[in-house]
């Protein structure tokens, strides 16, 4: 934010500094409220481009797609000094690159925090298929309770843990180290009281079944950085009644429930929360009821009368860092899909206006259309290359035609591309209507609606990009609200910090909120 020609630096070390930052973001967002309340699906129906400064749009519509996609992303510093132990093939089985990266980094952070607070018990909230719980149990030798709302996930976790146990049992039979299989619980956590009761009851059962859990730390090395500890695991009195809450992308209000549990439960000595799905947060003033809302949670943000709305919270979930790596053609295709969806909204508005009020979701059709479009252009370009070859076209010309600089092919014929876009739009609409269980109206004029939309389709990219640039700002205010909530608890001595621990290209929701009690 500009300040006398220079950049103003904000801090969140104290509650007052965090609140000052929140107010600064609120002031920054005020002129752009029209972006926050809008949804790109209504781009043509509501003529959304007219709310943006014309000079901005005229300037940006001339920029190539790959340049536009760099606008929303920023530079994010990685977790300082974290040493990540690579996962063996047994633990990593079934993990994709993103999941493996997340589990390796987060497990190291959790292990470091557990050492600091002297607790061997971890409660993995929203554990999914148990990847994190199993790495903490078998590799870091922590006692883990894995809680998830899906019974299917619980079954997968148990079955996978039994397979891994055989490997580690053979590996550690001659060592002094030991481990416990994660305990799985299927439950939808609705409140801090529920999470406390589940954790406490299972902790008592675990202590009866495993009165001694031995952990050999002679070969362990401390992590470097702010969260590193020079002390071994047993440096603090190991109180078996204490525990650490951890959540890897705990969805919606669940991340906030973890923070409330941390504050209300004396036995919880630390929390490591990486949020996700901000669009699913309950928001005060928007969702009615007597429940505790997921946003805002801090007194400071509430006193500022801060409201975002679902569209703005959805915008905070975007993956700005990933867009920078898209080439121009892939970027254009991304904008084209948004164009199709916005034009389809006009079809719904004309033929099924009652559907619009329900905010219909037609699913992710992007991949299917991308494959179809990719295949069609390759076939078209191959036919043209064959024609050129028959006419003694040079090898250089054929190579230029078939080998685009981008990984995503472009049509070599503009007129054919225009006709192809219309054909894809019609298919998009028919598919969307089918997914909504609606019939294709006999009197629908797809060509007329497409002509109306195509005239302004070049503005979709610039508008989408400018709006997406606010996504990281919105995520920041959501995270600062949670941080401030913890900082406001003056009756408890805690240390809080927000730290990026993942590569944002691999894992866009990469900021961990970490808090410890003293």
TrEMBL record:
Q: Which domain of life is it from?
A: Eukaryota
Domain Methyltransferase, residue spans: 98-283
Read off the SUPFAM superfamilies from this record: S-adenosyl-L-methionine-dependent methyltransferases
Protein name from the UniProt record: Methyltransferase-like protein 25 isoform X3
